[in-house]
Amino acid sequence: MSAVKVSEDVPRSAEETIDAVLYTRHLDQIFRKNREKDPRLIWQYFGSPSGILRTYPGKAWTLNFVGFPNDYDPRLRPWYIAASSGPKAVVILLDCSKSMAEGNRFKIAQGVAEVVIKSLSRQDFVSVICMRENYWDDIGTWHEYEIEVLGCDYNKMVPATSEQQRNLLVQVKNLTPEGTSEFEVGFRKAFELLSNSSRAGCLSTIVFVTDGLDSDGYTVRCGPGYYARSGYVPGPECRYNWETLWTEVEQLNREQEARIFSYLTHLSSEATKKLPGKLACDHRGSFKVLSDSRNLITKMRDYFNFLANSVQNTQSYWTSPYRDASGLGMLVAYPVPAYSTKIKQTIGVASIDVTLDEIIDHIQKEMWGDVSTFIINSFGDSIFHSSFSPNSEIASDPFFLPIADLERASNETMPEFVSIERSMRASRTGQQTVNTPGKYMVSCSLPSVGVVCIVIRVLFGSYFDNVLWQLRAMYLHINKHRQ
After folding, report:
1. Considering the chain, what is the average pLDDT of its residues?
2. How many C-beta atoms surround the C-beta of residue 469 within 10 A?
3. 434 and 415 in contact (C-beta within 8 Å)?
4. Is the peptide bond before 57 cis (omega within 30 degrees of 0)?
5. CA–CA dist 240, 166 (Å, integer)
6. What are phi and psi of 172, to 5 degrees?
7. What pLDDT, in 10s, does the model give residues 368-384?
8. Residue 371: what pLDDT?
9. What is the distance between the alpha carbons of residues 200 and 220, in angstroms, rounded to a whole number?
10. Partners of 205 in the beta sheet?
11. Beta bridge partners of 130
12. What is the side-by-side order of every strand in the sheet holding 430-436?
């Protein structure tokens, strides 16, 4: 029997929640048949766009330190992200002006940024821009602020690796709203980053979060004051002309054709909808008013539906290893998106797991003689290498070293390795042999597997026929899980 996990932020009584629980119950029969065919299957599961997870076999969920079940939102897990959208370049524009300090406006903005960052994968590119500018206050004091591009590169978007995501999340959390609004410079920087990045095949998107106000209040002035006989006279209060911004964004976006998704954090009047609403409408995005920071991933459904439906993805993947939420250590998942041709939407993602330990144990069990192994993903990161041991107690998703660095460290006289790595990352099939002083190198890229590739390094004097047998055994083992 399967079990259903509902994310904490998802309303239990919502119609789409109940519908997801009902329409996924029929998966139990398929889960059981799969288990009968291959008893070694660990978990089979299905995640819905509404935040419902159905797992087989059913189990009690793990508890936190106060005895409550740990939260789990399938929409933010690597297996769901990998299958539900294609590669994308996302610039997050945050209104960091002083008016955003009122109430929970900036908390909502930070929440939007967090959701977007967590929904990215290694194939994506990301930048976060905090938009604000210098100002004088009402007593003539100068306050210095400027546009801030978070992360490690001001002029280029960065790949959304685990370490880059953690870095951005910390920086977003530490932001405070100060200064006056400066959207024109912010949008110019956003389009500059989109044009400077190497992102062939990526969707270009801008996520814009603001309170929509055309003033930051009485204390924020856009010019110096002066002294008169009656005393100090503050400078002019800042008022913004959105027409100028709309015109500039229209010109900047002619080549990029980026989609703009706007989120309003404060609806004080219908006028506050004007700026973000028109930007979203003119640039084929969507607009949403957010009153609080609860269940943002569901409230931002238009954004995530666009990402999923823009590619109409039906392709399956091998993910890079990630940490299992229930404590099984490092896993490699094989997710498959479920796309409805009837309603033209992605209705969820189904997946199975293979533990990295299981793959490595099988490889090492079959090895003998002077044979060593490593596994890489499609980015050239070393998933397993004889130079280090996997750690099943890792507390977060791991950082993988480039295989070229590890091989260079073990053998400085192997420039030929570049051609092998290139073949593997391109998922070419067959064997590749390189003759170097004292050793052969044999490369095998497994057909239809994708990100998990295996290379066997063989010294002279080893049993070459046995190596070829091992390659075939490894392929059959991994491909069995794929099927």
Report:
1. 80
2. 12
3. no
4. yes
5. 35
6. -65, -40
7. 555 667 777 777 777 77
8. 61
9. 42
10. 90, 259
11. 94, 148
12. 382-385, 371-376, 453-459, 439-445, 430-436
Which of 454, 458, 461, 456 is closest to 435 using CA atoms? Answer: 458
SS3 readout for the chain: CCEEEECCCCCCCCHHHHHHHHHHCCHHHHHHHHHHHCCCCCCEEEECCCCEEEEECCCCCCECCCCCECCCCHHHCHHHHHHHCCCEEEEEEEECCHHHHCCCHHHHHHHHHHHHHHCCCCCCEEEEEEECECEECCCCCEECCCCEEECCCCCCCEECCHHHHHHHHHHHHCCCCCCECCHHHHHHHHHHHHHHCCCCCCEEEEEEEECCCCCCCCCCECCCCEEECCEEECCCECCCCHHHHHHHHHHHHHHHCCEEEEEECCCCCHHHHHHHHHHHHHCCCEEEECCCCCCHHHHCHHHHHHHHHHHCCCCCCCCCCEECCCCCCEEEEEEEEEEECCCCEEEEEEEEEEEHHHHHHHHHHHCCCCEEEEEECCCCEEEEECCECCCCCCCCCCCCCEHHHHHHHHCCCCCCHHHHHHHHHCCCCEEEEEEECCEEEEEEECCCCCCCEEEEEEECCCCHHHHHHHHHHHHHHHHHHHC
Which of 219, 391, 203, 376 has its CA nearest to residue 306?
203
The tokens 């070393």 sit on which residue? 382
Q: Tokens 């070293």: give the residue.
A: 401
Structure tokens at 420: 């092998």
Angle between helical axes of 242-256 and 183-196 (0-180°, round to 10): 0
- What's this model's pTM, rounded to 2 decimal places? 0.79
Percentage of residues in the chain having pLDDT higher than 70:
80
**Tens digits of residue pLDDT in 452-465:** 444 444 433 333 44
Taking only the tens place, the pLDDT of each residue in 156-176 is: 899 888 889 999 999 999 999
